[in-house]
Design goal:
With 597 residues, the chain is an alpha+beta fold. The chain has three domains: 191 residues, 2-Layer Sandwich (Heat Shock Protein 90); 123 residues, Ribosomal Protein S5, domain 2 (2-Layer Sandwich), CATH 3.30.230; 195 residues, MutL, C-terminal domain, dimerisation subdomain (formyl-coa transferase, domain 3). It contains 19 helices and 22 strands. The strands form five sheets. It has an eight-stranded mixed sheet with strand order 5-4-3-6-2-1-7-8. Strands 9-10-13-11-12 form a five-stranded mixed sheet, sandwiched between helices. A four-stranded antiparallel sheet has the order 16-17-18-22. Strand 9 and strand 10 form a beta hairpin. The longest helix has 19 residues. The chain is elongated, with a radius of gyration of 32 Å.
Length: 597
């Protein structure tokens, strides 16, 4: 059976127009292609009842207006080759014809330098009228009763508030891509916002996302034929979702999975799992190298050299994080500090021994405990009943500590070290700090390829959970490469005979359990891959670290901070959580109503 013409065009229209936001997107694209400087959008009923898009662009002449609602008519391309070199947002000639098939539509348009414009009305695919009219230069399109002739489609639309949010999101994307264009949005006669044209991209970003203003890192990179402009936030600014991530290619909002991968790889473990930074990414690329004609909604994009583009974006984000005076990228090389972090670093430096803030993180990390390396002249390490967290330094070295203006207050909630310095209080998470120290020590030892083992005088027996038993047995060689010597003892029991020299005896079981957790969390992955090993070291470092609720002494606090100062990233733990929090005197005085009264 051959479908009739009306059915065919309605199906085609439904592929382009699926909800009010689709209409708004297509009409704004036309306005931008017409070089509009101000675009006004008004809706009611979430756009289901009424949509109006008005612009001050170049307008259409009489002949173009008569053609604009016919299938596949456009002034933007002439041949298929024009799509390959596409430089406009619209190109298929489907938007107005699709809207005309599924709604009541009125189009008004006037060219510059003409005395009047023209008005055309259609209703669900039927022509109604064409008249001359007085109006300002530009184009106004009014759409009413969307899907009025397709009740089955109409019932699948969401409620008014949800559809309004979708419309708002489409306007937001266009406003972020075209900062030099003004946008006004109204719903039910109430103006939601007026975004005037901006001189710079960052002004537009901050206009819609004001909470990012102090955290944005601007970055621009030219990589071959690709220009990358990025505004991304420092790791301290994170969100529980990707709602602050927007990607644009040649000023068109797009979705491409490799952008998400690039962000994830650039930030690495700088942010906690399940949280996301704000990233506004803009690419300019030769139109011949990119295909927007992948999906009817024009949201998806395909690049001729996908790996080249992905690598260029990832490198740009890494460079931005590295060179921003913020925290370094995922490879954790040569850390630079923000002014806020330098202030904290100064407090720690003063508490320790008066070192300058710039030296924090640049010194070699002192060891937490001397290694016990197995060689032919050494004897097995005895069992140590009491945990020595931070061995005391020689008296002459301890004597160098100068409190200066920074005073050790104590530990609150058996978890957070407090220092008072000048106009601020520092809170340092003892577990996160120790975890950072242990992680870098374990990681560096493993990377060096010179991991030494210490034999246990009393071997430790461990029972492996049933669900992890097979995986554990299959990956004993990975533990062996880390410095463990573990033997099967029957059933799900194993005996640990040697451990790496960087692990405390009392942490033996917990450290191995950390490895098991990594196995179960990454089942199906390659246990020999660099990512797996890194995840395992993070878990092992976590298990081997002092815990909240575990009491440590003031000398141990000093040793902890000295070791923390020697790490490459003292402000976050390996999982991306913050180590240090600062509370200023001014903030405290505000709470006591001492300021502003």
């Amino acid at each position: 059976m051959t479908l009739d013409y009306n059915t065919v065009v309605k199906i085609a229209a439904g592929e382009v127009i699926d909800r009010p936001a689709s209409i708004v997107r297509e009409l704004i694209d036309n306005s931008l292609d017409a070089a509009a400087t101000v675009i006004k959008v008004a809706i009611s009923g979430g756009g289901k009842q009424y949509i109006e898009v008005q612009d001050d662009g170049c307008g259409m002449d009489k002949s173009d207006l008569e053609l604009c609602t016919k299938n596949h008519t456009t002034s933007k391309i002439g041949t298929f080759d024009d799509i390959i070199e596409l430089r406009t947002l619209g190109f298929r000639g489907e938007a107005l014809s699709s809207i005309a098939e599924v709604a009541d539509m009125t189009v008004l348009s006037r060219l510059r330098h003409t005395q009047s414009g023209y008005r055309m009305e259609t209703a669900f695919g039927r022509f109604k009228s064409f008249t001359e009219t007085g109006m300002n230069t530009g184009t106004t399109i009014i759409v009413k009763d969307l899907f009025g002739n397709l009740p089955a489609r109409k019932k699948f639309l969401s409620n008014d508030s949800t559809e309004t949010r979708f419309v708002n999101q489409e306007i937001l994307k266009k406003a972020l891509a075209f900062h030099d264009t003004g946008f006004e949005f109204s719903s039910h006669g109430e103006r939601k916002y007026l975004a005037s044209p901006k001189r710079t991209l960052v002004e537009r970003i901050v206009e819609f996302f004001p909470d990012t203003v102090e955290h944005l890192i601007p970055w621009e990179r030219h990589d071959g034929g690709i220009k990358i402009t990025a505004y991304l936030t420092k790791p301290a600014f994170i969100r529980p979702n990707r709602s602050y991530q927007y990607f644009f290619v040649n000023r068109r909002a797009v979705e491409w999975k490799h952008f998400y991968f690039a962000i994830q790889n650039a930030y690495g473990n700088l942010i906690p799992k399940g949280y996301f930074p704000a990233v506004f990414l803009y690419l300019e690329i030769d139109p011949a190298e990119v295909d927007f004609n992948v999906h009817p909604m024009k949201k998806e994009v395909r690049f001729r050299e996908e790996s080249v583009v992905s690598k260029a974006v990832q490198n740009a984000l890494r460079e931005a994080l590295s060179d921003s005076d913020g925290i370094s990228p995922a490879d954790e090389s040569e850390m630079r500090f923000t002014p806020y972090e330098r202030k904290i670093a100064g407090a720690i430096g003063g508490f320790l021994d008066g070192r300058s803030a710039g030296s924090l993180g640049m010194t070699e990390s002192p060891r937490i405990s001397p290694p016990h390396t197995r060689n032919e002249n050494s004897s097995p390490r005895p069992s140590v009943p009491e945990r020595e967290l931070f061995p005391a330094r020689p008296a002459e070295e301890s004597a160098k500590i100068d409190y200066l203006d920074y005073r050790y207050v104590g530990i609150v909630f058996s978890a957070y070290i407090m220092l008072e310095g000048g106009d601020q209080l520092l809170f340092i998470d003892q577990h996160a700090a120790h975890e950072r120290i242990n992680y870098e020590k374990m990681r560096d030892k493993y990377r060096s390829g010179h991991t030494s083992s210490q034999e246990l005088l009393v071997p430790v027996q461990i029972d492996i959970p049933l669900k992890a038993a097979d995986m554990f047995r299959e990956n004993l060689d990975t533990l062996g490469s880390m410095g463990f010597e573990i033997e099967h003892f029957g059933g799900n029991s194993y005996v640990i005979r040697s451990i790496p020299d960087y692990i405390d005896y009392n942490d033996t079981v917990q450290t191995v359990m950390g490895f098991i957790e990594t196995l179960t969390e990454n089942s199906g992955g390659d246990p020999h891959s660099a990512d797996f090993i890194d995840s395992a070291i993070k878990q092992m470092a976590c298990k081997a670290s002092v815990r909240a609720g575990e009491k440590i002494t003031e000398p141990e606090v000093r040793e902890l901070l000295k070791n923390l100062a020697g790490t490459s990233m003292p402000f976050s733990c390996p999982h991306g959580r913050p180590v240090i929090f600062s509370l200023g005197k001014t903030e405290i005085e505000k709470q006591f109503k001492r300021l502003g009264f």
